[in-house]
Amino acid sequence: MAELSAGEGAQWNDWARADPDLSSPYFRWEFARTAGPICPGSAVAVFKRDGRVVGYYPHQRRGGTIQPLAAPMNDYHGVIGPRDLKPSMQEAARLLRAPRFAAAAWIGEAPAEMPRYSSVVSIVPDDGGFDAWYARRRKAFPKYFKDKERSRRGLDGAFGTVEIEICLRDHALLERLIIEKSEQYRRTGHHDIFSCGWTGQVLHALMDSEGEDGFGASMAVLRVDGRVVAMEYSMHAGRHFHLWFPVYAQEVARWSPGIVLTQETIRLGAGRGYRVFDYGVGVGGNYKKYYDDGGLVTVEGLVARPGLTKALCDSASAVVGLVGRERARRLRTSTQRRWSVIEACETSWTGRTSGALRAAVDMVRK
Asked: How is the beta sheet containing 216-224 ordered, strand by strand?
């Protein structure tokens, strides 16, 4: 990835700060500057109109596919630039001459036929802070939050000490989280995104990175009697706190340690000035509705050259004829998502083949 000048980096961040839809740390220059040298096949597209820069797009190439930088870990992506001047998804794909241009949570103009998904965010008001936010959510869902209050009391009653810390730049904790997430991915039949090596290196580098408006990454941890039972790796910039990789010990699951840690992260983070706590798109579990104050509309899809589009459609039609339309849709979506993760992580033919074989075995088992 070629180095941008300090002036270009400042312009990049100015555009990100000016657009509320680009407030996530993923849209900061520091994210691309830190992750780019580690991500295989990385580059930044600089888009111009009449000789004037109108957008930046950090990305990575995997064969004929252009993906967001640091995929599959990148929770938001899109062109950073003025809304009325920057290129759409279709334009970006055309200008980059990509046989395939993939997005999982695109922010910006995109083809109308592509599926839309809303992200999940908790928004803490300036007036009243965490207490006001919690009172509003508890009023909306009293049964749920009473149950989580019982979980916290259960932790306090079962252990001598319960400690929670956030914003820790602790590489040993991060390495432990990566190991436990890898075990979780394998246990649940998902592709282990950390087995390729470079993905974990990106997280470590982001933890060491510093930039404008407090850009960086850190760990939150929940300890009982000095023992770690829940962790979460997050990234933050300005007033935006992105909750990224959580993990918790199964033996204390009945006390909802992950939820307890998240709520305390919001409380402690609000005290540090953070106001938007972002869970991204496609958060697992049903708990997300209890915390959602309304996020962004994102787009998932693939822009392919006409010949490839026809081939994909013909393949899809064949699948529909065999298994039925709705089942085919779910199967196609699941397969595409699984393959996009494998394609992003694994840069060798051997790695991709191995990942595809494991995915096929998992699908048969399901």
From this structure: 120-123, 276-280, 240-248, 227-237, 216-224, 162-168
